[in-house]
Amino acid sequence: MASAKSVTRRAAIVGGFAGAGWLIANASSLTEDQSLDHVFRAVEDWTKTAQRGLLYRDRLAREYSPADISPTFKPNGTYNPGTDEYNAHVARHFANWRLKVDGLVANALSLSVADLMRLPRRTQITRHDCVEGWSAIGMWTGVPLGLILKAAALKPTARYAVLHCADNLTGEPAKGGEQSPGQYYESIDLIDAFHPQTLIAYALNGKALDVPHGAPLRLRVERQLGYKQAKYVERIEITDSFSRIAGGRGGYWEDRGYEWYAGI
Amino acid sequence: MQLEQVRTESAGFWRRQWRDAFGPISDGEGFYRHRVLVRLTHWINALAILFLLGSGLNIFNAHPRLYWGNYGANSDFAFLSLDAVDAPTGTMGITQIGPWHFNTTGVLGWSKAYGEFQYRGWPEWVTIPRFQDLADARHWHLMFAWVLVINGLAYLFYSLAVRHIQKDLWPTRADIQAIPGSILDHIKLKHPAGDAAKRYNVLQKLAYLGVILLITLMVLTGLTMSPGMDAFFPWLLDLFGGRQSARSIHFICASLILFFVIVHLTEVVLAGPINEVRSMLTGRYRIPRNSKEHS
User: DSSP labels for A125-150?
Assistant: First the structure.
């Protein structure tokens, strides 16, 4: 006769293997019907907490030397927003482009590219890592976002900077919930917004940003992946939550299943 | 050989198999081989590696090209790529390794997924999930990466504390001298019996230590691909020669782990699958007797 202990152990072994086999057999359908969504979200939270625990505020991303710059900096996502309005801006060399800063701020701002170029600038040679796996190194010049936000004077309830963009990336359906529009947007929290390497960039490799790379203004947030680096930025909205914006997950790709915290 | 003798030997063989599988292990021939934490972490590790390999190949499909150095994208030289190329006879899957190109239509580069040919680095039957989705594959990958790391650390701390690694896995001087003999034994598919079966042979020790090293490299190269981790541990980039080198090493180590798994499973089958698998489930291992004892 088997003892009670060995029966329990046998049940644990059989149960463990049955569970693992079930998970392997159903991995695709579990992904498709999003039944593990809350588990994956918890994992994303751990990752973010772990990385934030290590990355105290001003820890810098590596900066490279001019010799390390990629011969070709691959553009991705939108290559040209192509709307009538955007084309008109291109024709006028973005002379009338405005970067608005509003939401939970005491001083709403509306800045031209020329205004931004008069502000203190930072130039950094950093690596852009696409979530797909490739990397490109380029030299970015722009205004630290923290300076702009200080000028706007954030209200105490401010938590996120949401970047609204001029490009519309339709074609990729949103996952779950409401179908969100294709207008590109991104969001970062204030830790990243005030990081010294976080820029509203207007130049790449010493030249004004070209259209495929996000002319006239784009975000650089160097400790996160490529999809966070919003291009064609026209408005920075300071909010306490992004749940009411578009698909509610804080960004175009986030609404399509990607992590909001893109540090890995 | 007389027919009668063959019959008796054959019956003896099947009796032994049956007894090995289901019979009780009597005193003297049973041996407590694997501690419970080692067994538990072994199976969790196996599951994590299965999911990490499958989801890793799905992630790889988002950009099926490998580079060396700090940067690398489509216009840079890739030392390995899986591509779909239009030819007069139809689209072909082309695998490129350095200067060599191979037609891998149907498997690599261009293969059927859900009944239709698609541009896919790796085919649907090796990726998790089956369908191509970078966001979903990353969720599985990062979840099981946590499982691998926590489980691996539990194994390492425990095994160092109870001196499992030092006593059972670390090769002795005698082991090193026995390498040529052990290679010969493996080629002849000769498996140890009696007291020798209570210890790992030297190739086994090196293989297990090797896979611990490979998993460590997987975790470190995986972290090197994280822009957040690079800001905290910039030395990771120097250790592996850049983010794209780290990504390539990640892939190479994954291939070596797959190779280990294949050899490992082959050895389990050759050495007696029931006895081996049972010992990894219950801890008890039946020591194979020397052939002269049971002839």
Answer: EEEEE-TTS-EEEEEEEEEEHHHHHH
